[in-house]
Amino acid sequence: MNKFSVKTVVAIGIGAALFFVLGRFVAIPSGIPNTNISLQYAVLGLFSAIYGPIAGALIGFIGHTLIDLSWGGSPWWSWVIASAVVGLVAGLPSKKFGLAEGNFAGKKVIAFAIVNAIANAVAWIVIAPVLDIVIYAEPANKVFAQGAFAAVSNSITAIIVGGLLLLAYSKTIAKSGSLKEED
Amino acid sequence: MSAKTVLNYIPKKSVIHELTGTTKLAFFLLFTFASMLTYDTRVLVVLMVISFSAFFLSKIKFKEVRGIFLFLLIFLLLNNFFVFLFDPGHGSDLYGTEHILFYITKRLVVTQEQLFYMVNLTMKYFVALPVAILFISATDPSEFAASLNGIGVSYKIGYAVAIALRYIPDIQRDYQAISQAQQARGIELGKNERLWNRLKNSINILLPLVLSCLSRIDTVSNAMSLRGFGKNKKRSWYVKRKYTSKDFAAIAFGILILIFSLVVTFHDGNRFYNPFV
Q1: How many A/B residue pairs have CB atoms within 8 Å?
Q2: Among B residues 245-264, those touching chain A with beta carbons less than 8 Å apart
Q3: Which residues of chain B neighbour A72 with C-beta distances below 8 Å?
Q4: pLDDT confidence of residue B5
Q5: What is the pLDDT of residues B91-129, one digit of tens each?
Q6: What pLDDT score was predicted for residue B2?
Q7: Nearest CA in chain A to B8
Q8: What is the rounded radius of gyration, in angstroms, for the C-alpha atoms of chain B?
Q9: Min Cα–Cα distance to chain B from A159, Å
Q10: pLDDT, mean of residues A86-90
Protein backbone atom coordinates (compact mmCIF):
# COMPACT_ATOMS: atom_id res chain seq x y z
CA MET A 1 0.00 0.00 0.00
CA ASN A 2 2.88 2.34 0.69
CA LYS A 3 4.05 2.05 -2.88
CA PHE A 4 1.29 4.41 -4.06
CA SER A 5 2.66 7.42 -5.82
CA VAL A 6 1.36 10.80 -4.74
CA LYS A 7 -0.40 11.09 -8.07
CA THR A 8 -2.29 7.83 -7.54
CA VAL A 9 -3.44 8.98 -4.09
CA VAL A 10 -4.76 12.24 -5.53
CA ALA A 11 -6.29 10.49 -8.54
CA ILE A 12 -8.18 8.15 -6.18
CA GLY A 13 -9.47 11.11 -4.18
CA ILE A 14 -10.53 13.27 -7.10
CA GLY A 15 -11.82 10.27 -9.05
CA ALA A 16 -13.98 9.27 -6.10
CA ALA A 17 -15.24 12.86 -5.79
CA LEU A 18 -16.19 12.90 -9.48
CA PHE A 19 -17.83 9.46 -9.14
CA PHE A 20 -19.79 10.82 -6.18
CA VAL A 21 -20.97 14.00 -7.93
CA LEU A 22 -22.12 12.11 -11.03
CA GLY A 23 -23.76 9.35 -9.04
CA ARG A 24 -25.46 11.57 -6.50
CA PHE A 25 -26.55 14.68 -8.38
CA VAL A 26 -26.66 13.87 -12.09
CA ALA A 27 -29.62 11.85 -13.25
CA ILE A 28 -30.20 11.23 -16.93
CA PRO A 29 -33.52 9.45 -17.44
CA SER A 30 -32.94 6.21 -19.35
CA GLY A 31 -36.45 5.97 -20.77
CA ILE A 32 -37.45 3.15 -18.40
CA PRO A 33 -39.37 4.61 -15.46
CA ASN A 34 -37.34 5.30 -12.30
CA THR A 35 -34.07 4.15 -13.78
CA ASN A 36 -31.24 6.45 -14.65
CA ILE A 37 -28.12 6.23 -16.72
CA SER A 38 -25.21 5.96 -14.32
CA LEU A 39 -22.58 8.20 -15.87
CA GLN A 40 -20.21 7.48 -12.99
CA TYR A 41 -19.34 4.11 -14.54
CA ALA A 42 -18.12 5.84 -17.70
CA VAL A 43 -15.79 7.96 -15.60
CA LEU A 44 -14.76 4.91 -13.56
CA GLY A 45 -13.79 3.10 -16.77
CA LEU A 46 -11.77 6.12 -17.89
CA PHE A 47 -9.92 6.64 -14.60
CA SER A 48 -9.20 2.92 -14.29
CA ALA A 49 -7.76 2.90 -17.82
CA ILE A 50 -5.48 5.82 -16.95
CA TYR A 51 -4.47 5.06 -13.35
CA GLY A 52 -4.67 1.28 -13.14
CA PRO A 53 -6.66 -1.43 -11.33
CA ILE A 54 -5.97 -0.55 -7.69
CA ALA A 55 -6.83 3.11 -8.20
CA GLY A 56 -9.96 2.02 -10.11
CA ALA A 57 -11.06 -0.34 -7.36
CA LEU A 58 -10.58 2.30 -4.66
CA ILE A 59 -12.38 4.98 -6.68
CA GLY A 60 -15.36 2.68 -7.07
CA PHE A 61 -15.28 1.64 -3.42
CA ILE A 62 -14.85 5.10 -1.87
CA GLY A 63 -17.15 6.86 -4.34
CA HIS A 64 -19.97 4.35 -3.92
CA THR A 65 -19.59 4.25 -0.11
CA LEU A 66 -19.82 8.04 0.05
CA ILE A 67 -22.93 8.05 -2.15
CA ASP A 68 -24.64 5.53 0.13
CA LEU A 69 -23.55 7.39 3.28
CA SER A 70 -24.77 10.71 1.90
CA TRP A 71 -28.24 9.24 1.35
CA GLY A 72 -28.01 8.62 5.06
CA GLY A 73 -28.14 4.88 5.31
CA SER A 74 -25.47 2.35 5.95
CA PRO A 75 -23.79 1.35 2.70
CA TRP A 76 -25.29 -1.54 0.72
CA TRP A 77 -21.95 -3.36 0.82
CA SER A 78 -22.72 -5.95 -1.85
CA TRP A 79 -23.15 -3.22 -4.48
CA VAL A 80 -20.26 -1.15 -3.12
CA ILE A 81 -17.96 -4.14 -3.56
CA ALA A 82 -19.36 -4.66 -7.07
CA SER A 83 -18.40 -1.07 -7.95
CA ALA A 84 -14.88 -1.74 -6.70
CA VAL A 85 -14.73 -4.86 -8.90
CA VAL A 86 -15.75 -2.80 -11.96
CA GLY A 87 -12.80 -0.46 -11.37
CA LEU A 88 -10.43 -3.33 -10.65
CA VAL A 89 -11.22 -5.33 -13.79
CA ALA A 90 -11.50 -2.29 -16.05
CA GLY A 91 -8.07 -1.12 -14.90
CA LEU A 92 -6.21 -4.40 -15.47
CA PRO A 93 -4.96 -3.59 -18.99
CA SER A 94 -4.11 0.04 -18.15
CA LYS A 95 -0.38 -0.49 -18.82
CA LYS A 96 -1.18 -1.88 -22.29
CA PHE A 97 -3.29 1.18 -23.11
CA GLY A 98 -0.29 3.40 -22.40
CA LEU A 99 -2.44 6.51 -22.18
CA ALA A 100 0.47 8.62 -20.99
CA GLU A 101 1.77 8.44 -24.56
CA GLY A 102 -1.60 9.30 -25.99
CA ASN A 103 -1.70 6.61 -28.66
CA PHE A 104 -5.26 5.46 -28.12
CA ALA A 105 -6.78 4.16 -31.31
CA GLY A 106 -7.76 1.07 -33.28
CA LYS A 107 -7.31 -2.16 -31.34
CA LYS A 108 -6.97 -0.38 -28.01
CA VAL A 109 -10.46 1.11 -28.37
CA ILE A 110 -11.89 -2.35 -28.97
CA ALA A 111 -9.90 -3.73 -26.02
CA PHE A 112 -11.28 -0.92 -23.84
CA ALA A 113 -14.84 -1.79 -24.89
CA ILE A 114 -14.37 -5.50 -24.24
CA VAL A 115 -12.70 -5.07 -20.86
CA ASN A 116 -15.44 -2.70 -19.68
CA ALA A 117 -18.15 -5.09 -20.81
CA ILE A 118 -16.43 -7.92 -18.92
CA ALA A 119 -15.89 -5.74 -15.82
CA ASN A 120 -19.54 -4.74 -15.63
CA ALA A 121 -20.76 -8.25 -16.37
CA VAL A 122 -18.60 -9.79 -13.63
CA ALA A 123 -19.56 -7.12 -11.12
CA TRP A 124 -23.31 -6.92 -11.68
CA ILE A 125 -24.21 -10.43 -12.86
CA VAL A 126 -21.88 -12.36 -10.52
CA ILE A 127 -20.55 -10.37 -7.56
CA ALA A 128 -23.50 -8.13 -6.63
CA PRO A 129 -26.29 -10.77 -6.84
CA VAL A 130 -24.24 -13.49 -5.14
CA LEU A 131 -23.38 -11.16 -2.26
CA ASP A 132 -27.03 -10.07 -2.07
CA ILE A 133 -28.03 -13.70 -1.68
CA VAL A 134 -25.28 -14.47 0.85
CA ILE A 135 -25.77 -11.37 3.02
CA TYR A 136 -29.44 -10.50 2.64
CA ALA A 137 -30.86 -13.87 1.46
CA GLU A 138 -32.84 -12.12 -1.25
CA PRO A 139 -34.61 -14.24 -3.89
CA ALA A 140 -32.24 -15.26 -6.68
CA ASN A 141 -34.44 -14.30 -9.64
CA LYS A 142 -34.93 -10.77 -8.28
CA VAL A 143 -31.25 -10.02 -7.70
CA PHE A 144 -30.19 -11.53 -11.01
CA ALA A 145 -32.82 -9.48 -12.87
CA GLN A 146 -31.56 -6.32 -11.15
CA GLY A 147 -27.97 -7.31 -11.86
CA ALA A 148 -28.59 -8.04 -15.53
CA PHE A 149 -30.23 -4.66 -16.00
CA ALA A 150 -27.34 -2.88 -14.26
CA ALA A 151 -24.78 -4.84 -16.27
CA VAL A 152 -26.37 -3.93 -19.61
CA SER A 153 -26.97 -0.25 -18.88
CA ASN A 154 -23.62 0.31 -17.15
CA SER A 155 -21.58 -1.38 -19.85
CA ILE A 156 -23.33 0.61 -22.58
CA THR A 157 -22.62 3.83 -20.67
CA ALA A 158 -19.03 2.83 -19.95
CA ILE A 159 -18.29 1.82 -23.52
CA ILE A 160 -20.01 4.63 -25.41
CA VAL A 161 -19.53 7.58 -23.07
CA GLY A 162 -16.28 6.33 -21.50
CA GLY A 163 -14.80 5.35 -24.86
CA LEU A 164 -15.63 8.67 -26.53
CA LEU A 165 -14.24 10.55 -23.50
CA LEU A 166 -11.04 8.54 -23.66
CA LEU A 167 -10.68 9.17 -27.39
CA ALA A 168 -11.12 12.89 -26.86
CA TYR A 169 -8.75 12.87 -23.88
CA SER A 170 -6.01 11.01 -25.72
CA LYS A 171 -6.08 13.68 -28.42
CA THR A 172 -5.21 16.34 -25.84
CA ILE A 173 -1.94 14.58 -24.95
CA ALA A 174 1.15 15.24 -27.02
CA LYS A 175 1.88 11.91 -28.69
CA SER A 176 5.28 10.34 -28.18
CA GLY A 177 7.23 10.76 -31.36
CA SER A 178 5.01 13.59 -32.55
CA LEU A 179 7.98 15.93 -32.87
CA LYS A 180 10.11 15.53 -35.97
CA GLU A 181 13.37 17.12 -36.94
CA GLU A 182 12.91 19.41 -39.91
CA ASP A 183 14.37 18.13 -43.11
CA MET B 1 -16.85 23.48 5.73
CA SER B 2 -18.53 22.43 2.52
CA ALA B 3 -17.76 18.75 2.98
CA LYS B 4 -20.02 18.98 6.01
CA THR B 5 -23.01 19.66 3.80
CA VAL B 6 -22.28 16.49 1.82
CA LEU B 7 -22.43 14.21 4.83
CA ASN B 8 -24.75 16.26 7.03
CA TYR B 9 -22.59 16.74 10.13
CA ILE B 10 -24.64 18.06 13.06
CA PRO B 11 -22.40 19.43 15.83
CA LYS B 12 -23.78 18.85 19.36
CA LYS B 13 -22.53 18.26 22.86
CA SER B 14 -23.18 14.64 23.75
CA VAL B 15 -21.48 11.45 24.86
CA ILE B 16 -21.49 10.19 21.29
CA HIS B 17 -19.94 13.36 19.90
CA GLU B 18 -17.16 13.18 22.51
CA LEU B 19 -16.01 9.76 21.30
CA THR B 20 -13.13 9.88 18.85
CA GLY B 21 -13.84 9.41 15.15
CA THR B 22 -11.89 6.17 15.19
CA THR B 23 -14.17 4.74 17.88
CA LYS B 24 -17.29 5.69 15.97
CA LEU B 25 -15.96 4.22 12.73
CA ALA B 26 -14.93 0.99 14.48
CA PHE B 27 -18.28 0.72 16.27
CA PHE B 28 -20.17 1.46 13.06
CA LEU B 29 -18.30 -1.29 11.19
CA LEU B 30 -18.65 -3.86 14.00
CA PHE B 31 -22.35 -3.11 14.28
CA THR B 32 -22.91 -3.27 10.52
CA PHE B 33 -21.15 -6.62 10.28
CA ALA B 34 -23.21 -7.96 13.18
CA SER B 35 -26.43 -6.91 11.45
CA MET B 36 -25.26 -8.21 8.07
CA LEU B 37 -24.26 -11.66 9.28
CA THR B 38 -27.29 -12.42 11.40
CA TYR B 39 -30.78 -13.33 10.24
CA ASP B 40 -31.96 -14.22 13.72
CA THR B 41 -35.02 -12.18 14.67
CA ARG B 42 -34.14 -12.15 18.38
CA VAL B 43 -30.67 -10.77 17.65
CA LEU B 44 -32.15 -8.18 15.31
CA VAL B 45 -34.53 -6.97 18.02
CA VAL B 46 -31.66 -6.61 20.52
CA LEU B 47 -29.57 -4.77 17.92
CA MET B 48 -32.47 -2.46 17.19
CA VAL B 49 -32.87 -1.56 20.87
CA ILE B 50 -29.14 -0.82 21.12
CA SER B 51 -28.98 1.31 17.99
CA PHE B 52 -32.05 3.38 18.88
CA SER B 53 -30.78 3.98 22.42
CA ALA B 54 -27.44 5.13 21.01
CA PHE B 55 -29.40 7.48 18.79
CA PHE B 56 -31.17 9.04 21.79
CA LEU B 57 -27.85 9.41 23.62
CA SER B 58 -26.52 11.58 20.78
CA LYS B 59 -29.21 14.26 21.34
CA ILE B 60 -29.73 14.48 17.58
CA LYS B 61 -33.39 15.25 17.06
CA PHE B 62 -35.54 13.07 14.86
CA LYS B 63 -36.69 16.02 12.76
CA GLU B 64 -33.07 16.81 11.83
CA VAL B 65 -32.80 13.49 10.05
CA ARG B 66 -36.43 12.92 9.07
CA GLY B 67 -35.64 13.21 5.36
CA ILE B 68 -33.21 10.32 5.57
CA PHE B 69 -35.74 8.10 7.34
CA LEU B 70 -38.43 8.87 4.77
CA PHE B 71 -36.12 8.22 1.84
CA LEU B 72 -35.05 4.87 3.27
CA LEU B 73 -38.58 3.89 4.11
CA ILE B 74 -39.59 4.40 0.48
CA PHE B 75 -36.51 2.49 -0.67
CA LEU B 76 -37.28 -0.43 1.65
CA LEU B 77 -40.95 -0.52 0.64
CA LEU B 78 -39.97 -0.63 -3.01
CA ASN B 79 -37.40 -3.34 -2.35
CA ASN B 80 -39.94 -5.44 -0.43
CA PHE B 81 -42.45 -4.98 -3.22
CA PHE B 82 -40.00 -6.36 -5.78
CA VAL B 83 -38.92 -9.21 -3.50
CA PHE B 84 -42.57 -10.24 -3.20
CA LEU B 85 -43.29 -9.77 -6.89
CA PHE B 86 -40.32 -11.83 -8.05
CA ASP B 87 -40.56 -14.65 -5.54
CA PRO B 88 -43.62 -14.82 -3.25
CA GLY B 89 -42.60 -18.32 -2.14
CA HIS B 90 -39.12 -17.36 -0.97
CA GLY B 91 -40.11 -17.25 2.71
CA SER B 92 -41.54 -20.77 2.53
CA ASP B 93 -38.35 -21.99 0.83
CA LEU B 94 -36.24 -20.54 3.63
CA TYR B 95 -38.33 -21.71 6.59
CA GLY B 96 -39.53 -24.99 5.11
CA THR B 97 -43.23 -24.63 5.93
CA GLU B 98 -46.18 -22.88 4.31
CA HIS B 99 -49.01 -21.15 6.18
CA ILE B 100 -51.16 -19.47 3.55
CA LEU B 101 -52.93 -16.29 4.62
CA PHE B 102 -54.68 -15.23 1.41
CA TYR B 103 -54.36 -15.15 -2.38
CA ILE B 104 -53.86 -12.02 -4.46
CA THR B 105 -53.61 -13.96 -7.71
CA LYS B 106 -52.85 -17.61 -8.32
CA ARG B 107 -49.10 -16.95 -8.25
CA LEU B 108 -49.00 -14.15 -5.68
CA VAL B 109 -49.78 -16.03 -2.47
CA VAL B 110 -49.29 -14.26 0.84
CA THR B 111 -47.88 -16.65 3.43
CA GLN B 112 -46.88 -16.08 7.05
CA GLU B 113 -43.36 -17.23 6.17
CA GLN B 114 -43.03 -14.66 3.40
CA LEU B 115 -44.22 -11.83 5.64
CA PHE B 116 -41.89 -12.95 8.42
CA TYR B 117 -38.97 -13.15 5.97
CA MET B 118 -39.67 -9.65 4.64
CA VAL B 119 -39.95 -8.23 8.17
CA ASN B 120 -36.52 -9.73 8.92
CA LEU B 121 -35.04 -8.40 5.69
CA THR B 122 -36.35 -4.91 6.45
CA MET B 123 -35.13 -5.04 10.06
CA LYS B 124 -31.71 -6.18 8.93
CA TYR B 125 -31.30 -2.97 7.01
CA PHE B 126 -33.18 -0.80 9.44
CA VAL B 127 -31.21 -1.70 12.59
CA ALA B 128 -28.02 -0.31 11.13
CA LEU B 129 -29.70 2.94 10.14
CA PRO B 130 -29.53 4.88 13.46
CA VAL B 131 -25.91 3.85 13.93
CA ALA B 132 -25.11 4.92 10.37
CA ILE B 133 -26.82 8.27 10.92
CA LEU B 134 -24.88 8.67 14.17
CA PHE B 135 -21.63 7.89 12.45
CA ILE B 136 -22.33 10.44 9.73
CA SER B 137 -23.97 13.16 11.79
CA ALA B 138 -21.78 13.00 14.88
CA THR B 139 -18.37 12.69 13.21
CA ASP B 140 -16.58 15.78 11.96
CA PRO B 141 -15.63 14.97 8.33
CA SER B 142 -12.18 16.44 8.91
CA GLU B 143 -11.63 13.57 11.35
CA PHE B 144 -12.37 10.94 8.70
CA ALA B 145 -8.84 10.46 7.40
CA ALA B 146 -7.39 10.23 10.91
CA SER B 147 -10.14 7.75 11.89
CA LEU B 148 -9.44 5.49 8.91
CA ASN B 149 -5.76 5.56 9.74
CA GLY B 150 -6.69 4.83 13.35
CA ILE B 151 -8.39 1.52 12.51
CA GLY B 152 -5.35 0.42 10.52
CA VAL B 153 -6.06 1.62 6.96
CA SER B 154 -2.98 3.00 5.19
CA TYR B 155 -2.80 6.77 5.70
CA LYS B 156 -2.55 7.23 1.94
CA ILE B 157 -6.03 5.78 1.48
CA GLY B 158 -7.24 7.90 4.39
CA TYR B 159 -5.81 10.90 2.59
CA ALA B 160 -7.55 9.90 -0.66
CA VAL B 161 -10.87 9.88 1.22
CA ALA B 162 -10.08 13.29 2.70
CA ILE B 163 -9.30 14.63 -0.78
CA ALA B 164 -12.57 13.21 -2.10
CA LEU B 165 -14.55 14.95 0.64
CA ARG B 166 -12.62 18.17 0.10
CA TYR B 167 -13.19 18.29 -3.68
CA ILE B 168 -16.79 17.09 -3.96
CA PRO B 169 -18.21 20.63 -3.58
CA ASP B 170 -15.68 22.05 -6.06
CA ILE B 171 -16.45 19.42 -8.67
CA GLN B 172 -20.16 19.87 -8.09
CA ARG B 173 -19.80 23.60 -8.75
CA ASP B 174 -17.76 22.92 -11.88
CA TYR B 175 -20.41 20.50 -13.08
CA GLN B 176 -23.18 23.05 -12.63
CA ALA B 177 -21.23 25.78 -14.41
CA ILE B 178 -20.38 23.55 -17.37
CA SER B 179 -23.84 22.07 -17.59
CA GLN B 180 -25.51 25.51 -17.58
CA ALA B 181 -23.08 26.85 -20.17
CA GLN B 182 -23.84 23.89 -22.42
CA GLN B 183 -27.58 24.23 -21.89
CA ALA B 184 -27.28 27.84 -23.01
CA ARG B 185 -25.90 26.42 -26.24
CA GLY B 186 -28.94 24.17 -26.52
CA ILE B 187 -27.42 20.95 -25.23
CA GLU B 188 -30.03 19.08 -23.18
CA LEU B 189 -29.93 16.01 -20.98
CA GLY B 190 -33.62 15.88 -20.09
CA LYS B 191 -36.56 13.88 -21.38
CA ASN B 192 -37.04 16.07 -24.45
CA GLU B 193 -34.01 14.54 -26.10
CA ARG B 194 -33.79 11.04 -27.48
CA LEU B 195 -31.73 8.54 -25.51
CA TRP B 196 -28.89 8.46 -28.01
CA ASN B 197 -28.71 12.28 -28.05
CA ARG B 198 -28.73 12.37 -24.26
CA LEU B 199 -25.67 10.11 -24.21
CA LYS B 200 -23.96 12.20 -26.88
CA ASN B 201 -24.78 15.43 -25.07
CA SER B 202 -23.51 14.08 -21.79
CA ILE B 203 -20.08 13.86 -23.41
CA ASN B 204 -20.15 17.59 -24.14
CA ILE B 205 -20.58 18.18 -20.43
CA LEU B 206 -18.36 15.40 -19.13
CA LEU B 207 -15.33 16.11 -21.28
CA PRO B 208 -14.59 19.60 -19.86
CA LEU B 209 -15.37 18.26 -16.38
CA VAL B 210 -13.02 15.28 -16.74
CA LEU B 211 -10.26 17.41 -18.24
CA SER B 212 -10.51 19.92 -15.42
CA CYS B 213 -10.39 17.07 -12.89
CA LEU B 214 -7.31 15.60 -14.54
CA SER B 215 -5.50 18.93 -14.45
CA ARG B 216 -6.59 19.33 -10.83
CA ILE B 217 -4.97 15.97 -10.09
CA ASP B 218 -1.70 17.31 -11.53
CA THR B 219 -1.87 20.53 -9.52
CA VAL B 220 -2.75 18.89 -6.22
CA SER B 221 -0.26 16.04 -6.56
CA ASN B 222 2.52 18.50 -7.44
CA ALA B 223 1.69 20.59 -4.38
CA MET B 224 1.70 17.48 -2.19
CA SER B 225 4.99 16.20 -3.63
CA LEU B 226 6.58 19.58 -2.95
CA ARG B 227 5.59 19.22 0.69
CA GLY B 228 7.09 15.76 0.83
CA PHE B 229 3.86 13.77 1.12
CA GLY B 230 4.35 10.02 1.43
CA LYS B 231 8.00 10.06 2.42
CA ASN B 232 7.46 8.32 5.77
CA LYS B 233 5.63 5.19 6.80
CA LYS B 234 3.52 7.02 9.37
CA ARG B 235 2.12 10.48 9.80
CA SER B 236 0.49 12.49 12.54
CA TRP B 237 -2.89 14.24 12.42
CA TYR B 238 -3.95 17.63 13.74
CA VAL B 239 -7.46 16.44 14.52
CA LYS B 240 -6.55 13.18 16.19
CA ARG B 241 -7.75 13.06 19.79
CA LYS B 242 -6.56 11.00 22.74
CA TYR B 243 -8.57 7.88 23.55
CA THR B 244 -10.46 8.03 26.82
CA SER B 245 -11.96 5.22 28.88
CA LYS B 246 -15.28 5.88 27.11
CA ASP B 247 -13.67 5.04 23.77
CA PHE B 248 -12.33 1.73 25.02
CA ALA B 249 -15.71 0.94 26.57
CA ALA B 250 -17.50 1.69 23.28
CA ILE B 251 -15.15 -0.47 21.21
CA ALA B 252 -15.34 -3.31 23.73
CA PHE B 253 -19.14 -3.04 23.61
CA GLY B 254 -19.04 -3.20 19.79
CA ILE B 255 -16.90 -6.35 19.87
CA LEU B 256 -19.24 -7.91 22.45
CA ILE B 257 -22.26 -7.17 20.25
CA LEU B 258 -20.59 -8.85 17.28
CA ILE B 259 -19.64 -11.94 19.32
CA PHE B 260 -23.10 -12.13 20.93
CA SER B 261 -24.84 -11.90 17.58
CA LEU B 262 -22.60 -14.54 16.00
CA VAL B 263 -23.01 -16.95 18.92
CA VAL B 264 -26.80 -16.62 19.13
CA THR B 265 -27.19 -16.79 15.37
CA PHE B 266 -24.99 -19.76 14.59
CA HIS B 267 -25.13 -21.91 17.77
CA ASP B 268 -27.75 -24.20 16.20
CA GLY B 269 -26.01 -24.25 12.83
CA ASN B 270 -28.76 -22.24 11.14
CA ARG B 271 -28.67 -18.54 10.32
CA PHE B 272 -32.45 -18.15 10.55
CA TYR B 273 -34.62 -18.08 13.63
CA ASN B 274 -37.54 -20.33 12.73
CA PRO B 275 -40.75 -19.86 14.73
CA PHE B 276 -42.74 -22.09 12.37
CA VAL B 277 -41.28 -25.42 13.45
Answers
A1: 196
A2: none
A3: 8, 65, 67-69, 71-72, 129, 132-133, 136
A4: 55
A5: 888 888 888 888 888 888 888 888 999 998 888 888 888
A6: 45
A7: A70
A8: 24
A9: 11
A10: 95
Q: Does A171 touch chain B (CB under 8 A)?
A: no
Residues B222, B262: Cα–Cα separation, whole Å: 48
- A30 shares contact with chain B (CB less than 8 Å): yes
Phi/psi at B109 (5° precision) = -100, 130
Per the structure, the complete domain to which residue A116 belongs is given by: 6-172
**pLDDT average, residue stretch B140-165:** 87
Q: What is the CATH number of the domain that holds A120?
A: 1.10.1760.20
Please, are residues B254 and B31 in contact by the beta-carbon 8 Å criterion? yes
Confirm whether A179 is domain-assigned: no
Residue A1 falls within a domain, yes or no? no
Res. B267: pLDDT tops 50: yes
What pLDDT sits at residue B3?
A: 46
Count of domains observed in chain A:
1
- Domain ranges (residues) in chain B: 2-140+241-266, 150-226
Q: How far is A183 from chain B (nearest CA, A)?
A: 35
Question: With contacts defined as CB-CB under 8 Å, which chain B residues touch A161?
Answer: 199, 202-203, 206
Show the DSSP H helices in chain A as ranges: 6-25, 40-51, 53-71, 77-91, 94-97, 107-121, 128-136, 140-157, 163-172
- Best mutation target, B156, B170, B182, B183, to test chain A (most A CBs within 10 A): B156
The pLDDT score that the predictor gives to residue B67 is 79
HSE-CB at B256 with a 13 A cutoff on CA atoms is: 8
Whether residue B7 and residue A26 make contact (CB cut-off 8 A), yes or no, is: no
Q: What is the ipTM of this complex?
A: 0.88
**Hey, which residues 105-144 in chain B have their CB within 8 Å of chain A?**
117, 121, 124-125, 128-129, 131-133, 136
pLDDT for residue A11: 95
Q: Is the pLDDT of residue B4 over 60?
A: no
- Residue B1 confidence (pLDDT): 38
8 Å CB contact of B160 and A58: yes
Query: Is residue A180 in some structural domain?
Result: no
Q: Above 80 in pLDDT, residue B29?
A: yes
Residue B191 forms contact with A (CB below 8 Å): yes
B94 DSSP 8-state letter? H
Which residues on adjacent β-strands are paired with residue A37?
Answer: A28
Give the pairing of strands A28-29 and A36-37.
Answer: antiparallel
Give the integer Cα–Cα distance in Å for B191 and A25.
Answer: 16
Considering the domain boundaries, does residue A18 fall inside one? yes
